[in-house]
């Protein structure tokens, strides 16, 4: 029998809840922080600890059978994966935010302005739908400091508690999408029986929480 692989976030907002969910499924494994693969002792499964941004591609390419990742990451990477189950944690929204002292109060005022983001695909589609042309500046992290450094007029990033925006003197201005953690898989996985068993365990953990 083949060993399944599930990819979860190595560190960040989804890591702890993803580990908790798998432990609640009765899976025994060490939550190694330094090792990127952890074998499960009582199920034919290995846990891969990855950067969340890479998870959709790993699942699409069959390197992992399953993955736990935010819907926002899936949309941004434009991969072909199947949504198997919403997981009810990691709720957040992708928002455009501007400095507190900014007087922008209408989306159209973003025309000709620059917006820093790690989500250029999602933001690009959103602006196109609204008929707005902005200069999208793609950066790979610490987006919130960009207006303060004079690198952009606005940002587009995930907001969960709002703490990061607040501590950087920014206010939310428009909602682009809402997101939560989801379980993803691949159509035509060769380990369908094991995948189904794991999905059922996850679903019963979720049901017990209701
Ligand atoms: C998001 C986002 C902010 C933070 C906002 O990062 O980029 O940094 O969360 O959360 P708050 O509103 O509660 O302050 P995420 O955890 O998704 O990590 P990543 O960007 O490194 O993938
Ligand atoms: Zn990320
Ligand atoms: Mg971040």
UniProtKB/TrEMBL annotation:
Catalytic activity: 1-(5-phospho-beta-D-ribosyl)-ATP + diphosphate = 5-phospho-alpha-D-ribose 1-diphosphate + ATP
Annotated ATP phosphoribosyltransferase catalytic domain residues: 51-203
Chief place where the protein resides: cytoplasm
Protein localization: Cytoplasm
Pathway terms, separated by semicolons: Amino-acid biosynthesis; L-histidine biosynthesis; L-histidine from 5-phospho-alpha-D-ribose 1-diphosphate: step 1/9
Activity control note: Feedback inhibited by histidine.
Keywords: Amino-acid biosynthesis, ATP-binding, Cytoplasm, Glycosyltransferase, Histidine biosynthesis, Magnesium, Metal-binding, Nucleotide-binding, Transferase
Gene Ontology MF, one: ATP phosphoribosyltransferase activity
Enzyme class: transferase
EC number: 2.4.2.17
Names of required cofactors: Mg(2+)
Family (UniProt): Belongs to the ATP phosphoribosyltransferase family. Long subfamily.
Function: Catalyzes the condensation of ATP and 5-phosphoribose 1-diphosphate to form N'-(5'-phosphoribosyl)-ATP (PR-ATP). Has a crucial role in the pathway because the rate of histidine biosynthesis seems to be controlled primarily by regulation of HisG enzymatic activity.
UniProt-recorded name of the protein: ATP phosphoribosyltransferase
Organism this protein belongs to: Mucilaginibacter litoreus
């Amino acid at each position: 029998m083949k060993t399944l692989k599930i990819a979860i976030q190595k560190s960040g907002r989804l890591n702890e809840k993803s580990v908790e969910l798998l432990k609640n499924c009765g899976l025994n494994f060490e939550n190694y922080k330094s090792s990127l693969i952890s074998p499960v002792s009582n199920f034919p499964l290995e846990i891969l600890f990855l950067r969340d941004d890479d998870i959709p591609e790993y699942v699409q390419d069959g390197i992992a059978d399953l993955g736990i990742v935010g819907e926002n990451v899936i949309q941004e990477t434009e991969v072909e994966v199947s949504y198997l189950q919403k997981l009810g944690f990691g709720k957040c929204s992708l928002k455009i935010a501007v400095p507190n002292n900014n007087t922008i109060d209408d989306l159209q005022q973003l025309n000709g302005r620059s917006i820093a983001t790690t989500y250029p695909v999602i933001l690009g589609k959103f602006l196109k739908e609204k008929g707005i042309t902005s200069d999208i500046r793609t950066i790979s992290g610490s987006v919130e400091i960009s207006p303060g450094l004079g690198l952009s007029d606005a940002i587009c990033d995930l907001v969960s508690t709002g703490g990061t925006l607040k501590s950087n003197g920014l206010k939310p201005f428009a909602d682009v999408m809402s997101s939560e953690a989801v379980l993803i898989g691949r159509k035509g996985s060769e380990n369908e029986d094991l995948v189904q068993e794991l999905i059922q365990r996850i679903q019963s953990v979720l049901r017990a929480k209701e």
